[in-house]
Predict the 3D structure of the following.
Amino acid sequence: MDLRTFSRKSWDIIDSVCSVYVGSTDIVEKMLAACLTNGNVLFEDYPGLGKTLLAKVFARVIGSYYSRIQFTPDLLPADITGTKVWRQSTGEFVLVRGPIFTNVLLADEINRSPPKTQAALLEAMEEKQVTIEGETYPLDPPFYVIATQNPIEQEGTYPLPEAQMDRFLIRMSPGYPESVESEMEILRRRIDWKVDDPTSHIQPVVSLQEFRNMQEIVEHIFVDESILRYITEIVRATREHELVEIGSSPRGGLALLKISRALAAIDGRDFVIPDDVKRVAFETLSHRIILNVEYLIEGVKPESVIEDVLKSVEVPKKEEVRP
């Protein structure tokens, strides 16, 4: 697959998702960019904004295997990973695979389960493998988690630990419809569908193998030394900001690198420019920053730190970043 075909197929995927999901194309493009790098995505927003629908539609459009887990307080780690059971007929333990053995795992309302259950995802999210009773099983590529959580309702929820937040490549908020016309379009489409969930009628735009080939293309996008320095200085600046107690880890820099390469490829370029990095800086770094307590009380948001950092770090000149 060449880069032109890659870009065309990418926009076919985006257009197909947007034919069902009414919302920002930018959100869908960044979601695709994250998934092209096997990155995990966290949607954090109010109920009823289409987070689950978006994840389900995307999984079907790219022709991948898909599992959904509704996180609840009584969910156990074995309900996610699976377990070994004794088979009397064969006289041996047999692995009964859990829903994590898939390509796209939708973790719906992930913060409604206790930390022990949430931790069952940690190994899979980072290392793309699962260890069950001392035996390690690799997950078939591509594998990534698309999780949703409600940021306003705290009763009966368990905040995601920092270690797990750091494993999400990006965190996004779809937000309310941008206009009256957009919200009316949601109603029109519901009338046309005649069902609440139209995802069963969605046809894949690409095959699973084609999507794997697209992931390989991203790994060949050129990144100049000046871009690498730019990413590094942004990440390091988050640690030195006066409002921050703990800044972004090096994984934040890797996230910026991965998703900026994917965005460049989607746009049909074989090299990364500074705008690719700036475009996703908020989504990749804000959830990796812990503010000092006094500023949290005052209502300061991590996004304001990212904004300051982007203003302070010198941007490479565009003519310097081409291969």
The longest helix spans residues 250-266. The chain has two domains: 1-219, 221-315.
